[in-house]
Amino acid sequence: MKLSDALSLSFRTVVSYRLRALLILLAMALGVAAVVTLTALGEGARRFVVNQFASLGTNLIIVLPGRAETSGGFPGAIVGETPRDLTLGDAASLQNLSGVLRYAPLNVGVTEISTGGRLREVTILGSTAGLIAIRHMKLAQGNFTAGNGPNPAEIVLGAKLARELFPAGNVVGQRIRLADRRFRITGIFATQGESMGFNTDEIAMIPIDHAQALLNTESLFRILVEASSRNAIEPAKTAIREAIRLRHDGEDDVTVITQDAVLATFDRILRALTLAVSGIAAISLAVAGILVMNVMLVAVSQRTAEIGLLKALGATRKNIKRLFLLETLWLSLAGAATGIALGYAGSFILRLVYPQLPAYPPAWASLAAIATALLTGIVASLLPASRAAKLNPVLALSRR
Amino acid sequence: MIQLSAISRVFTMGDQEVRALNHIDLTITAGEYVSVMGPSGSGKSTLLNIVGLLDQPDSGTYLLENRDVTALSESEQARVRRERIGFIFQSFHLISRLTAAENIELPLILEGLSVAERQARVKAVLDQTGLADRANHRPAELSGGQRQRVAIARATILNPAVLLADEPTGNLDHKTGAEVVALLEKLHHAGTTVIVVTHDRELGGRAHRRIQMRDGEIVEDER
Ligand SMILES: Nc1ncnc2c1ncn2[C@@H]1O[C@H](COP(=O)(O)OP(=O)(O)OP(=O)(O)O)[C@@H](O)[C@H]1O
Ligand SMILES: [Mg+2]
Hints:
Chain A is an alpha+beta fold. Chain A folds into 2 domains: about 5-50 and about 265-400, no CATH class; about 85-250, no CATH class. Chain A has helices at about 5-15, 20-55, 90, 130-135, 160-165, 210-215, 235-245, 260-300, 305-310, 315-355, 365-390, 395-400, and strands at about 60-65, 100-115, 120-125, 140, 155, 175-180, 180-190, 195, 200, 205, 220-225, 255-260. In chain B, about 35% of the residues lie in helices and about 30% in strands. A 6-stranded mixed beta sheet of chain B has the order 6-7-8-3-9-10, sandwiched between helices. In chain B, strands 2-1-4-5 form a 4-stranded antiparallel beta sheet, covered by helices on one side. The two termini of chain B are about 15 Å apart. The complex binds adenosine-5'-triphosphate and magnesium ion.
């Protein structure tokens, strides 16, 4: 028997037993759809986190005052006192280190902002123009050119803040008060929304020297550094630590963290989670396999006479085995295709419901789901097919 | 052409032994028209199944066309069944989801013939058996006589040397039974060896050689 004939013969059989076909197809399709959708969900969560980190900046190194004793590397995990301040001088010393592309000192504080009788509280970032580049911030209008100082008193407003304070528009060039100091507005941030807890729509940014004067501090909140490349991150980190240790009388009293390390950890966790979830979904495929096996066993016993006849007509055991294997293969194939379609539809709905979540099913998951479905079908049909092949033709034919 | 010597077939049902065939010796030459008759349970079907390689004897030797076929492997036996032997059953055994033409085509598919050749052969056989206008009907839409004619067409499409019919008219009325018999005899005239198991004295009597069985033994063999 030719393979093409076996294929078309088994296909015709599949089509003529509609209910059975539908049942198997549905079981397979649901399993595959579950794998695809859940993987899309896991991947979406992973990409969401990765994107959040990316919006913080690429090849980012963060220098914090104080020594972290934990190995976790999370800023929040830092314990202990701050033995020595991180100063603007420390920041400037990073300028010419190899591997350092740019850097920005940072102070953060809350103060009052007022203009023309309007007054509200605002979070201010004190930094230099470097921060805009490092954090990938975008200005909708104007610019921010502050260096290490001394700088003119300029301020950039978040988009929402600008709207609230100047409902009439025409913001750039206006003057505004922060506490008792006057600043000239030189720009407005583009709307970016939330990113890792910072909403750039509601903050204001001023030059670092003005921020330190306003907040009455010499101590930096942190220094952000962008390494020149991914490979430069580790050497730059070492160089930064060394440079600051020299300035701090040999005391290794700062914490240098890379977002890479944090991101890698998240990435690993979320990948593992995705795999676990799709693994659980794959169990539903195994259940489908058991169903397929049972349905095929019933099919074999229903078609005993037909199998006996085929043997009488000269079919070999191999021929019969192959016909039954191909039947399940067709069903699994159709089930997998339907499942992929359902899975993509499911992911699409997920994206509609959670627009922030890039829940796209990864290609590997779809391929793995198809492969698993086909494999399940083949394995599940092995027993029924060999049972059919071994049927005694005399007994098979005498049953009517 | 068919040489059975000392063929025995014993079935065990629980602790009971049934000798369905008891040291059967039988030689049938090519082109013979043989009927096998006898009471129910005398071993007629068992004999036919062994001749048709659907069943294996427990002892004895069976030469088909001078070849010891009981020694062949499973797939070699399947090939012999496919190419040298045609089966006809009382209950037709047509596949209900396939049309008449497709049922007839099955042996050709198993043989691995090309689509073009299959179509040509099926068409020829449909014309010969007067079933051309029923080609695309399913078994459920055919009369009993038509069904048996489809089954005969299927059994003979690869020009077997031996045609084995187990009560071919058992499910048919007298008139359609006669038509089926006429078709079998036509095949006999064309040179096929025909062996018919039957309870019908009239049909059995038409054969040129008439074998009587009882309790797994041949008790009469007239020509
Ligand atoms: N698979 C089997 N298992 C057990 N006993 C069997 C089997 N097949 C046949 N027999 C027994 O062997 C004997 C011969 O059976 P066989 O079918 O050859 O008879 P038969 O002559 O064809 O009868 P009938 O005219 O009723 O068709 C019977 O006693 C039957 O019960
Ligand atoms: Mg019988």
